[in-house]
Amino acid sequence: MNIAVSPTAEAPSARARVQWTRRWESELQLTDHAELAEFFRKSYGPTGAFNAQPFEGNRSWAGARPEVRIIGYDARGVAAHVGLLRRFIKVGGVDLLVAELGLYAVRPDLEGLGISHAMRVTYPILHELGVPFGFGTVRPALQKHMTRLVERQGLATLMSGIRVRSTHPDVYPNLSPTRIEDVIVVVFPVGRSISEWPAGTIIDRNGPEL
Q1: Which of 116, 96, 98, 97 is nearest to 106 (CA)?
Q2: How many C-alpha atoms does 89 have within 13 Å on its Cβ side?
Q3: 102: nearest Cα among 56, 137, 53, 78
Q4: Quick check: 142 and 183 in contact, CB under 8 A?
Q5: What is the pLDDT of residue 119?
Q6: Domain segments of the chain: what residues?
Q7: Strand ranges (DSSP E) for the chain?
Q8: What is the Cα 197 distance to its own chain's centre?
Q9: What is the Cα 161 distance to its own chain's centre?
Q10: How many CB atoms lie within 10 A of CB 88?
Q11: CATH for 3-204?
């Protein structure tokens, strides 16, 4: 789950100004991709130039391409974004349908908007997609932040000690086509209980991260 947000308190006034909309990927026009690409460059840029690099030109995705996007707009344009992609991952040796969440970002001037608010907007769409779980990953440095924002509110369960294998979105000479990361796994129970999440210390995306 690519995240561009600082651990700040939520701002009720910011939440009130943002209007959320669901956009299927095939509905987006070139102007939409251009606007989103600029939004991601500005949102991910402060975390490092490398993180903003995938969004050069009109490219509005970094690895795998979303299936559906939840986009928040305000008077200044794109305010926040969450991408969703239904896919089968392998947990241990079990194939599992999930909706991967990624490309989460909030415009720098609205950092207080909060991921928990975005997830409350996203949850009904996860139910509509008919998946048993939402799934994402975050860097270990964000574990305390995510615990405060989603786990303590009962929105998700965080799991550590799990390695996640992904493919690179592009193949480069002298570079392995896959990567394995030690990350925090974030699981959002949707159609099934968290107790039904398969046991395993290795998760394979069998594709690039969203």
Answers
A1: 116
A2: 32
A3: 137
A4: no
A5: 76
A6: 3-204
A7: 3-4, 19-24, 68-74, 77-91, 94-106, 133-138, 157-167, 178-189, 202-204
A8: 19
A9: 20
A10: 12
A11: 3.40.630.30
pLDDT digits (tens, 9 = 90+) for 132-163: 999 999 887 666 665 555 655 667 888 989 99
Q: What is the dihedral of CA 204, 118, 54, 44, to 10 degrees?
A: -120
Determine contact, residues 188/119, Cβ cutoff 8 Å: yes
Residue 138 has a pLDDT of 84
Using one digit for the tens of pLDDT, what is the confidence trace for 74-84? 999 999 999 99
H helices of 94-173, in order, are: 115-129, 143-146
Question: For the chain, how many residues are written?
Answer: 210
Residue 44 tokens, joined = 């991910």
pLDDT at res. 10: 42
Pairing of strands 94-106, 3-4: parallel
Low-confidence ranges of the chain (pLDDT < 70): 1-16, 111-116, 141-154
Contact assessment for residue 179 and residue 166, using Cβ atoms and an 8 Å cutoff: yes
Q: How many CB atoms lie within 10 A of CB 78?
A: 21
According to the model, what pLDDT value does residue 56 have? 93
Cα separation, 185 vs 193, whole angstroms:
16
